[in-house]
Amino acid sequence: MQTRRAFITRATAALGLAATARHPSAASHALPSLTAQEASVQLAPESYPETSIWGYEGRTPGPVIRVPQGERLQRRLVNDLPEPTSVHWHGIRIDNAMDGVAGLTQDAVAPGQSFDYDFVVPDAGTYWYHAHNRSWVQVARGLHGPLIVEEAEAPEVDREEILVLDDWLLDRDTGLIDDSFNHPMMMSHAGRIGNLITANGRFDLSVPVRRHARLRLRLINASNARIFPLQLDGLRGWIVALDGMPLAAPEMLDDILILGPAQRADLIVDVMAGEGETAHLPRIGNDDRPAPLVAFPVSGSAAQRPRAAPGALPPNPGDGIPSLADARPLRLVMAGGAMGRMESAVLGGERLGFRELAAQGRFWAFNEMAEMTQEPLADLSLGEPVRLEIVNETVFPHAMHLHGMHFREVRDGRPAGPMRDTLMIDPRETREIAFVADNPGDWLFHCHMLSHAESGMMTWIRVT
Ligand code: C2O
Ligand code: CU
Asked: For the domain 159-301, what is the CATH code?
C-alpha cells in the first residue's frame, strides 16, 4: 500500500515536472486548489428557500481532505469571497508559517488572491480546517471542512463516517444566515448559539447501516459556540481518540460524551439495534432529553457477530508525557462576560471600565488584557516543558485551544489523560495543562467560542 502510494506520488510529481518544462508559467498551478466561495445550499427544511453560505468549493462542510500520516498536504487557497480570508489546519502540529492565522502567521488573503499551503502532517487523526480571519463571521457562514490524517494501519471496521456537527443561526422568515454576528448578547453570553443543528450540512442526516456492523465515527464539532452532549442509542461503542489523539486504551462510552466547539472524538461503535429499527447518535437538549442528530436505520445484518472491544489506535510520534519537575509555571485568568463582575481591563494600552469595553465590543479579558497584546503570554525556549494554570472566573464554559502543540491535563499533580488541543473549562473552574514547547513559532491560545475570541479571549505564546 505504502509502496503504491509512494509510486503514485512520484508519478504525479514526474508529470508535474514534465508540464512545468513545457509551460514554465504553469508551474504555479501544481497545487490542488481549495476555493473559498459563496454558494446556495438547502440547509433548512424544504419549506425554506436555499441559504446562501460561504464554503470551501461551495460546500459546507467543505471537501474531505485525506492525507496519509507523515506525508505532505498541499492546497492553494483561492479567495473568491468578498473579503480577505485564510485557512487554519486545526490540531495539526504544523510549520508555523502554514498555521493560517491572519495577522500573526500570515497576511489575510485578499479577494481574488491565493495562498499556497504546503506542510507535513506528523500525527494521524481526525482534524479540521477552517477560516482564521474574522472567524466568528466566516466559520459561522460555513467555512470549514474535515481533515483526516490516516494511520498506516487503520483499525478494522466495516465503514467509516465523518460527522461534522454545526449549528446555524438562521433568520426564521427568510432562512438566510442571521448577520448580527457582533450582537452584544451573543458576545457577552454563551456565544453565537444557533437555531438549526446539522450533521454534514443536513438537519436530518440518515446513515443506513447493517445490524452488527462496526463503524468508526469521526465526530467534529465545527459550530461557533454550541457544546454537544452526545449519547449512543442502539449502538455500543468506545472512544478511541479525542482531538485526533489516540487514547492509551479505548474507553467504553456508556454515558455522555461532551464535545465542545472545535473538539473531535473518534468512536468505534457496533450496531446493536435490530433490523427494521433505527439506531441514533442523539444530542442531549436543554430539556435534558435526547434530540435527534444522526439516525442510523438498520437493514440487513453484517456477516460477523459483534466483536471484542477494539484495541488502541497506534500512538502518534509526539505522544510523550512532559515532566513537570522543571516545567515553567504559567497562569491565565479568564474574566468578564455577562454576570462576570469584571470591573475593568486594558484595551489599546488604556485601562477601561466594563461599560467602556462593552461599547467597543470587548466583554472578556485574559490576565486583564481585553485584546491580543504586542507581548506574548510567554516567551518559551524550544523544548521547554510548561505547565499552565487556567482560571475561569466567568460564569460561562469556554473551549480553550492551543495552536501548534498538544497538551495534557494535569490532574493530582501529574499530566494525565489523552493529548488534546482544545480544553473545555466549566464556569468558575480552574484547570491545569502541561505541554512541551517543541514547535517553534508564534502560536495562538484562545477560546474557540469564536465570538468570545473576537471580544477579548485571545492571547499567544512565542517559542524560539
Ligand atoms: Cu480552530 Cu485558532 O482555531
Ligand atoms: Cu469562551
From this structure: 2.60.40.420
Residues with CB under 6 A from ligand 1: 88, 90, 130, 132, 262, 401, 403, 444, 446, 448
Ligand lying closest to the C-alpha of residue 139: 1
Question: In the 8-state DSSP scheme, what is residue 289?
Answer: S
- The residue contributing the CA closest to ligand 1 atom 1 is 90
**CATH code that applies to domain 2-150:** 2.60.40.420
In this prediction, does ipTM exceed 0.95?
yes
Evaluate the omega torsion of the peptide bond into residue 385 and state whether it is cis, within 30 degrees of 0.
no
Helices (H) and strands (E) in the chain, counts: 5, 32
Segment 384-396 shows an average pLDDT of: 97
What is the CATH code of the structural domain delimited by 328-463?
Answer: 2.60.40.420
Say which ligand is closest to the CA of 399.
Answer: 2
Query: pTM, whole model, 2 decimals?
Result: 0.93
- Among the listed ranges 139-148, 243-252, 291-300, 320-329, which one has the minimum average pLDDT value? 320-329
Is the predicted pLDDT of residue 24 greater than 60, yes or no? no
Say how many Å lie between the CA of residue 243 and the centre of ligand 1.
Answer: 13
Q: Do domains 159-301 and 328-463 have the same CATH topology?
A: yes
The domain locations on the chain are: 2-150, 159-301, 328-463
Name residue, grid cell 461557533. Answer: 224
